């Protein structure tokens, strides 16, 4: 404690400075960085002083060269004398006139800083509010400037915003509601800077009119002018008044507190307004939602009538950012006939729709979620050329089969596919399953040069399209085709995405292909396997994530993945760029996952076996190497012992046959399966790693002897007698009460009696 107090006293009086200049002034020690900062600060200060001095000199020179009178801040002209000719009273100041436009617009002058010696006279136009005033002028504030000349202090008019009026066409804005607006005063100095006008968040849309109309507006009274502008707006938006009424009714319908009777009336009134005008209202951001509201009412008559009215607009609506939602709602909630009508409307337009962002989204929604196999085939074949649009086939065939029958069309079809892929694979449409199907067909049938070009364009984007079956299949084939350098780049692109890919229905297959193909296991462990190991709980609880971990433990194991997937992955074994043997590659990947896998199993053994239903996965992880394994897989000794200890702790619980609160591990189906599977491997393990030995040493005789009351418990005891050593056999014989055992006639009890009597051999 004494040393700590001394340190506190030592640093108690340390000087604190705000910046390096204060540090220099106090004489503190400066390092190299501090000295550089001081030099920069001094250079900036010197430059600033020079600029200020030059500006001051320029202003003084301008004032001296000006006329004998100058304008005050309020726009009036005062004499240079301090007193007027009427005595000691100051001369009365004239009020400034609020003028925006003169009678003749061609005489309006645009002021510029470069113009000198201006002759400025006050405007003679009648005062009043101008209709061309921008809403931004409300925020203009006068900023007075003072310049000292000799012993007198004169005020200079504040700088103003530039005002430029074209003689051909003017922009007219709506008049503001406030009457007391500040007018734009006369310009007083060509050399003064302009005022920075703050930008408003919302600007009014200007209405463009000709010069004659603008002059007519200038001579109109305020009320007539507002009415005239309102009529101009209505001409520009003829459905504006109808849209406003629709939105009022829409708000009434969507409110929860509206009574049902009023809501029904509002729905019928709203449909009456929309009927016959839906094709014009559907494309606006607000009225499109009104029509969607009518669809959401689930009234078949209204929905069918709206759909029939908008049927000719299906393709156009699919291209619009707002109306596309109506098409998607009809695909989701419409009848089968309406869906077929929408999908048939896309005939001949699929290549065009895929190039447009919003239309591609609608086409994908119809193709992926609602189209049947024949409709999907018709959509895909449209990308093969115009011939397939005009002449559709009844039989569904792949592109390989089509080219095998008509090889002369290969060049034309692949050219069409190359164009559409090159046009859209740089956009957001890369995630669409239609494009994945087209790219897969193209890759499987093009020549070597085209494959290289496709690989170059997609090697950085593989994680973006592995969520579909065709996209995952294309990604796997690209990995097989890619050279070593490109494979490393593909692996690096999975950084921070490995866990998400492992939990994908189809994306997890791409990771399995990487484990089969990439020779750089150090990079794989660093980028992918380490991320998987850190999220062990999340992956094991997920069905697809469990398959990835199982593949690292048991690659190409039919218990973990389907046999058809194994056959497909085996196609990549013959690729020319993989040189490392499978045993070495799988062994190095397995060594990286064991550090996190087995501690997690030991810590969560009860949850995995009893609740998560992962008993097959646990048993597979603790098995010894078999003839079906592709490498010599050895569970670390300490990891196996920790798992055995976790099992012993579960087995120590009091055994109650058919316990309603929860089965004992001996009687639980999953627990009994795990015990049997692990004990089956005891004969190939050292004695200190055997589960049978751990159970015999960790349990009392009473605990072991109670298992004979259960059929499954008798089978576990039988297995321990068969695979355990002499110590285990001796412990079991001393624990089993033969008279108690003779009272049971289950199949397991009969086998156990025969084993104890020496009638059954191992």
From TrEMBL:
Gene Ontology molecular functions: mRNA binding
Q: Which Pfam families match?
A: CPL
Q: Which GO biological process entries does UniProt record here?
A: regulation of translation
Is this entry keyworded Cell cycle? Answer: no
Q: Where is the PUM-HD domain?
A: 244-598
The UniProt keywords, alphabetically, are:
Repeat, RNA-binding
Composition-biased stretches, type Acidic residues, lie in 175-189
Q: Where is this region: Disordered?
A: 63-98, 151-192
Report the superkingdom from the record.
Eukaryota
The residue ranges flagged as biased composition, category Polar residues, are 79-88
The Pumilio repeat units are at 309-344
UniProt cross-references to InterPro entries, sorted A to Z: ARM-like, ARM-type_fold, CPL_dom, PUM-HD, PUM3, Pumilio_RNA-bd_rpt
GO cellular component terms listed in the entry, alphabetical order? nucleolus
| Protein name stated in the entry | PUM-HD domain-containing protein
Q: Say which species the protein is native to.
A: Caenorhabditis remanei (Caenorhabditis vulgaris)
């Amino acid at each position: 404690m004494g040393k700590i107090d001394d340190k506190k006293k030592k640093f108690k009086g340390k000087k604190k400075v705000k910046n390096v200049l204060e540090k220099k002034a106090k004489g503190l020690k400066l390092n190299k960085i501090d000295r550089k900062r001081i030099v920069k600060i001094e250079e900036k200060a010197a430059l600033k002083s020079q600029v200020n001095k030059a500006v001051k000199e320029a202003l003084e020179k301008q004032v001296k060269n000006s006329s004998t009178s100058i304008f005050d801040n309020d726009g009036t002209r005062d004499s240079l004398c301090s007193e007027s000719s009427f005595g000691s009273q100051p001369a009365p100041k004239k009020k400034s006139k609020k003028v925006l436009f003169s009678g003749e617009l061609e005489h309006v002058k645009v002021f510029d800083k470069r113009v000198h010696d201006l002759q400025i006279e006050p405007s003679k136009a009648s005062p009043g509010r101008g209709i061309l005033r921008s809403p931004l002028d409300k925020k203009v504030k006068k900023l007075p400037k003072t310049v000292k000349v000799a012993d007198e202090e004169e005020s200079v008019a504040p700088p103003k915003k530039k005002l430029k009026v074209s003689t051909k066409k003017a922009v007219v804005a709506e008049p503001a509601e406030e009457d007391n607006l500040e007018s734009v005063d006369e310009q007083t100095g060509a050399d003064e800077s302009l005022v920075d006008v703050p930008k408003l968040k919302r600007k009014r849309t200007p209405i463009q009119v000709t010069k004659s109309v603008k002059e007519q507006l200038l001579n109109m009274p305020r009320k007539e002018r507002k009415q005239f502008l309102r009529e101009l707006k209505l001409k520009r938006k003829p459905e504006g008044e109808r849209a406003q009424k629709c939105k009022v009714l829409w708000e009434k319908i969507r409110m929860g507190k509206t009574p049902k009777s009023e809501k029904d009336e509002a729905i019928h009134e709203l449909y009456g307004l929309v009927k016959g005008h839906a094709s014009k209202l559907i494309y606006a951001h607000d009225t499109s939602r009104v029509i969607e509201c009518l669809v959401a009412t689930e009234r078949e008559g209204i929905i069918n009538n709206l759909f029939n009215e908008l049927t000719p607009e299906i393709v156009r609506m699919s291209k619009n950012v707002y109306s596309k939602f109506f098409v998607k709602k009809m695909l989701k909630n419409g009848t089968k006939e309406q869906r077929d009508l929408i999908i048939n409307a896309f005939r001949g337009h699929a290549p065009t729709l895929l190039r447009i962002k919003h239309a591609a989204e609608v086409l994908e929604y119809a193709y992926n979620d609602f189209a049947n196999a024949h409709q999907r085939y018709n959509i895909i074949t449209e990308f093969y050329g115009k011939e397939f649009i005009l002449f559709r086939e009844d039989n569904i065939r792949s592109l390989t089969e089509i080219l095998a029958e008509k090889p002369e069309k290969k060049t034309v079809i692949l050219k069409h596919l190359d164009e559409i892929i090159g046009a859209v694979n740089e956009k957001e449409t890369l995630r669409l399953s239609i494009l994945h199907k087209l790219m897969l067909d193209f890759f499987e049938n093009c020549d070597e040069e085209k494959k290289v070009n496709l690989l170059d364009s997609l090697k950085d984007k593989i994680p973006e399209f592995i969520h579909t079956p065709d996209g995952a299949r294309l990604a796997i084939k690209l990995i097989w085709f890619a050279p070593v350098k490109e494979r490393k780049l593909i692996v690096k692109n999975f950084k921070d995405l490995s866990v998400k890919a492992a939990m994908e229905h189809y994306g997890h297959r791409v990771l399995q292909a990487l484990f089969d193909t990439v020779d750089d296991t150090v990079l794989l462990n660093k980028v992918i396997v380490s991320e998987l190991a850190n999220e062990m709980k999340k992956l094991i609880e997920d069905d697809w994530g469990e398959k990835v971990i199982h593949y690292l433990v048991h690659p190409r194991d039919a218990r973990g993945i389907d046999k058809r997937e194994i056959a497909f992955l085996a196609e990549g074994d013959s690729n020319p760029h993989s040189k490392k043997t499978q045993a070495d590659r799988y062994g190095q990947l397995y060594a990286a996952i064991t550090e996190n896998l087995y501690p997690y199993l030991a810590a969560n053994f009860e949850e995995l076996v009893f609740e998560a239903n992962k008993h097959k996965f646990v048993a597979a992880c603790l098995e010894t190497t078999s003839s079906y394994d592709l490498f010599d897989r050895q569970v670390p000794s300490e990891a196996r012992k920790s798992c055995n200890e976790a099992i012993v702790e579960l087995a120590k619980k009091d055994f109650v046959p058919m316990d309603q609160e929860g089965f004992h591990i001996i009687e639980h189906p999953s627990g009994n399966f795990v015990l049997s599977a692990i004990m089956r491997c005891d004969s190939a393990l050292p004695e200190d790693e055997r589960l049978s030995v751990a159970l015999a040493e960790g349990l009392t005789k009473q605990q072991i002897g109670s298992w004979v009351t259960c059929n499954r418990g008798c089978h576990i005891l039988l297995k321990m007698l068969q695979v355990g050593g002499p110590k285990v056999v001796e412990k079991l014989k001393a624990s089993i009460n033969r008279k108690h055992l003779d009272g049971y006639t289950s199949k397991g009890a009969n086998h156990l009696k025969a084993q104890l009597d020496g009638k059954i051999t191992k």
